Amino acid sequence: MQSLARIALVVSDYDEALDYYVGTLGFDVTEDSEVSAEKRWVVVTPPGSECSLLLAKAKGADQKAAIGNQSGGRVFLFLHTDNFDGDYARYTEAGVDFIEDPRQEAYGKVVVFRDLYGNLWDLIGRS
Hints:
alpha+beta; four-stranded mixed β-sheet; five-stranded mixed β-sheet
């Protein structure tokens, strides 16, 4: 058996990213350890998820250029929820940048949002 454990997400600042992913989206801080004066190991996890995000502070021009566009403009991350309407309402109130209205698909309700850095996400309530 194999499974994804973490996905590295390039960010410009650890604390700014924590404020968004924890404060706005409601993820949990799984780990926040100092590695060096410039580097931290910062992991956030959606409630109930086995997969987490490693918030990786960009270093150098190439990594900084990738912030917000890690998937070339496609939806990058797919966030499943068992409470689509509640999460959509909470995220809307928190100012999450939805780029469309929720729609019904064969697999459930879905809406695309843009995170703090411009990465596209699907919020999905599976049917």
